[in-house]
Every structure is written in C-alpha cells, then in structure tokens.
Amino acid sequence: MVVRWLAGLLCSLILWCCFVPASRAEDVIHPYSFSNGQLKGRDFSGQDLRASDFANANMERANFSSANLRGGVFSASVMTHVNLHGADLSSAMVDQIDFTSADLSDAILAESILLQSTFNQTNITGADFSHAILDGAQARELCDRASGTNSVTGVATRDSLGCG
Length: 164
What we know:
The chain is mostly helical. The chain contains three helices and no strands.
C-alpha cells in the first residue's frame, strides 16, 4: 500500500515538472515558504503568492480569494472550509488535499495536479479544471455537480472536466 502511494506521488511530481512552463527573466518571482505552517483562518486574499510552498500546512478556513497561487505547492495540506473563490491555482500541486466545504467557485485549476484530493460539499461552480490531472473517481464525482463558466477563462466547468 505504501509503495503504491509513493509510486503515485512520484508520478505526480514527474508530471508536475512536465507541466510547469519555463520562466522568462521578467517573470522571475520570489516564492514564500509556509510549509508545515499553522495558517488557520489567515487572510491571503488578492495576494501574489506564485510558486509558494504551502505543503503540509493547516489552512482550515483561510481566505485565498482572488489570490495568484500559480505553480504553488499545497501537497498534503488541510484546506477544509477554505475560500479559494476566483483564485488562480494553475500548474499547482494540490494533491492529497481535503477540500471539504471549500469554495472553489470561479477558481482556475488548469494544469494542476489534484490526485487523491477529496471534494466533499465543495463549491466548484465556474471552476476551470482544464488539463488538470485527476483520479477517475474524482472527475466523475465532480461532473455530477459541475456547473457554471469561469469568468476569467470563459471555460465551462463541465467542459474543463471532460464531462459527457
């Protein structure tokens, strides 16, 4: 069981490396590290946190609305009741996350890795999952309640998930 989990994580990391676009000199950023942090209830709304590390952090009830989180690492973090409305999580590692009761409405998760994450009672209205890497069961579950169109990308949630 552990070997299978490690193999899945390794595959996730390899895929993530392939999907992260190369940077131009003018795009160089200075990411922050919140790894293993206690960030419960913190307000990060509207902030530019590209490529920041939030791995293994407790972010229950944190506010990331309209934040730029492109290329961030959130692996194995607690994100229950988190507000990600309108956040950009493109090319992010958001694997092994519990999104129970989270607000992902109008969020952009294009090209993100979402393997082994759970979406119980999560609002995904207008979220864009284009080219995101999901487990088959996750995609089917999300398709059952997918609706809306992302206000930034113009992509319908059902289309971004490949719902039939």
